[in-house]
Amino acid sequence: MQYDAIILGAGAAGLFCAATAGQRGPRVLLIDHNPEPGRKILISGGGRCNFTNLHTAPDRFLSANPHFAKSALARFTPQQFLDLIEAHGIAWHEKTLGQLFCDGSARQVVDLLLEECAKGQVELRFGQDVGAIEHRDGRFHLAGASAPALVIATGGPSIPKLGATGFAYDLARQFGLKVVEPRPALVPLTLGGDDVLFRELSGVAAPVEAICDKARFREAALFTHRGLSGPAILQVSSYWKRGSPVEIDFCPDAPHGWLTQAKRAAPRKALRSTLAEHLPDRLAQALAERLGLAGELSGLTDKALNAAEQRLARWAFMPNGSEGFAKAEVTAGGISTAELSSQTMEANKVPGLYAIGEAVDVTGWLGGYNFQWAWASARAAGMAI
Ligand code: FDA
């Protein structure tokens, strides 16, 4: 069977690319080894799919080349995807920080994408293994089909139980494209050593500022039985490197000198109760214990309180790892952007070969940015093939 384009992977990027290309005229085949499309979409955003973020900007993406994503993101904006959502009559809401979710179910987004594919007469083959791929006579041959264009949209290996694989990287290497070492991102971090004591706080969450290198995120952190999670931690995990600390400001809204002021205002209070005005009780207790400052505030020197304030503002945790690809919401790294055109996502040295979505070394923050990259990169390739 001859096609104009074959797209591998019916996730967010592959479905949108197939629809975009198909509606322009080319004959498109979309293949996925899973029996159903868009499994990650279906479980995304707690089942409501955080399908984009209004604050999308290139600095919210990690990549060896921070400029690469600019062109595609500028040419397909969150508003354009929102227009599509509205055109399909899908009710939505902004939850927080520009994050847009379906009111109903993530299934609506998959249905939207399938309807758009149908408009483009895209041929769908689900539950189909791709098998070997050959490139000869200017065409890509696979699974009894051939086409002059092949799009790699098979994502990254995070959450293998959903059918995620590192197939994109194998394919990239087959065609001589470099791959930036893939690593789990948006992933809970694990604690060892002295930090293990914090595991007793499993289930406690607090609004904090998490800091890793130059990245800072003000959101909730959650203590777990293995270490740290919650949005603030998932965000910094994408920047975290083994051997470096993650710092937490437990009282990011407290003014400078707040503990000594608290002593003047209520000298008979204990540090633990003062902290509990900002933090959950159990956490306040654990921090006061670790600071080693018991008794009334009046019995503590200003020097000790200022030192405690500084420590609370940059509490250093030394994660000993992450929960890995099994729990990572995305994979950072991937097919090197140096190999691709930022305009079309086509491989510079293999005309007709494209890579889009999470398979590429572009990784968004938590909050709808990864889907926006999937839509934008898919659009760029879909308009070019
Ligand atoms: P995606 O992984 O979606 O699709 C790849 C497809 O390729 C899959 O259908 C897979 O079956 C197929 N495939 C893989 N290997 C293959 C092979 N060897 N042969 C054939 N097919 C193969 N992002 C966001 O912006 N908002 C959110 O709310 C969430 N929520 C969220 C929750 C959870 C639990 C996870 C794991 C992830 C998110 N994400 C997210 C991230 C988001 O889901 C992700 O970035 C996109 O789905 C990436 O889209 P792609 O199409 O690139 O890959």
Task: Describe the protein's topology.
Blueprint: E1 5-8, H1 12-24, E2 28-32, H2 39-43, E3 50-53, E4 61-62, H3 70-75, H4 78-87, E5 92-94, E6 99-102, H5 107-119, E7 123-126, E8 134-136, E9 139-142, E10 145-147, E11 149-152, H6 167-174, E12 179-185, E13 189-191, E14 205-212, E15 215-223, E16 227-229, H7 231-237, E17 246-249, H8 258-265, H9 271-275, H10 281-291, H11 302-313, E18 315-317, E19 319-322, E20 330-335, E21 353-355, E22 363-364, H12 369-384
Parallel strand pairs: 1-2, 1-11, 2-7, 11-21
Antiparallel strand pairs: 3-6, 4-22, 5-6, 8-9, 9-10, 12-20, 13-16, 13-19, 14-15, 14-17, 15-16, 17-18
Bound molecules: dihydroflavine-adenine dinucleotide.
Question: How would you describe what is shown here?
Answer:
By secondary structure, the protein is an alpha+beta fold. 48% of the residues are buried. Helices cover 30% and strands 24% of the residues. Helix 1 (12-24) runs parallel beside helix 5 (107-119). It has a seven-stranded antiparallel β-sheet with strand order 18-17-14-15-16-13-19. A five-stranded parallel β-sheet has the order 7-2-1-11-21, sandwiched between helices. It has a three-stranded antiparallel β-sheet with strand order 3-6-5. A hairpin with a 2-residue loop joins strand 9 and strand 10 (145-147). The model has no long low-confidence stretch (mean pLDDT 97). The chain folds into two domains: 5-184 and 327-384, FAD/NAD(P)-binding domain; 189-322, Translation factors (Elongation Factor Tu (Ef-tu), domain 3), CATH 2.40.30.10. The structure holds dihydroflavine-adenine dinucleotide. The site of dihydroflavine-adenine dinucleotide has 37 residues, from helix 1, helix 2 and helix 12.
